[in-house]
Amino acid sequence: MHAYRIDGLAPHAFAPLFALDDDALRAHGMRRVVADSPTGYPCRVSLAEAAPGERLLLLTFEHHDCDGPYRASGPIFVREGAARAPTLRNRLPSILATRHLSLRAYDGDGWMLQARALEGRDAEAAVQELFEDPRVARIHAHNARYGCFLCTIAREPAQA
Questions:
Q1: pLDDT digits (tens, 9 = 90+) for 41-58
Q2: Are 50 and 56 in contact (CB under 8 A)?
Q3: CA 142, CA 36: separation in Å to the nearest integer?
Q4: pLDDT tens digits along 142-155
Q5: Pfam families annotated for this entry (predicted)?
């Protein structure tokens, strides 16, 4: 089994945005939304679904900052007051299980090596398969239907 880790984003980068009014958010291409169902609002900080009635921001986030053609940003949700998820080691967050996913495997320089589209229930097997290639340093998981960036799955160094 290939070891990996997943970290939520740091909440302090987003906390000041919640103080902005809706006009200021729109001026920066962001929107405030309220979850209206128990699924559909995966927070990138907590790596958990927002509960109905919770306030979130929907904003663009540069998730693949590299010097090359695969540099990318995309939409993410951030729950108001969300605490950063504890590091997940060798287990995927539940927000992946119920979605149709796009997994994109990158080397250490940010070059895409492989990609898969699959149902979330098949994600663990696909992650292990992608990490069979020793060049793969990280895998980005996206909601394949809506394009939201969900998480980075980073290869952990082999234990000696």
A1: 999 999 999 999 999 999
A2: yes
A3: 21
A4: 999 999 999 999 99
A5: DUF1203
Beta strand 55-64 with 31-34 is antiparallel
Q: First CA to last CA across the chain, in angstroms?
A: 14
Q: In angstroms, how far is CA 86 from the centroid of its own chain?
A: 14
Residue burial 71-87, b: 16+ Cβ < 10 Å; e: rest: ebebbbbbbbebeebee
Question: CA angle, 89 as apex, 88 and 95 as ends, to 5°?
Answer: 40
The conformation of residue 12, written as its DSSP 8-state character, comes to: G
Supply angle C-alpha 79, 85, 86, rounded to 5: 170
| Long-range residue pairs from 91-95, CB within 8 A, at least 24 positions apart, any chain | 92/6, 92/123, 92/124, 92/127, 92/153, 93/6, 93/47, 93/48, 93/150, 93/151, 94/48, 94/49, 95/42, 95/47, 95/48, 95/49, 95/150, 95/151
Looking at the DSSP bridge assignments, the partners of residue 78 are 57
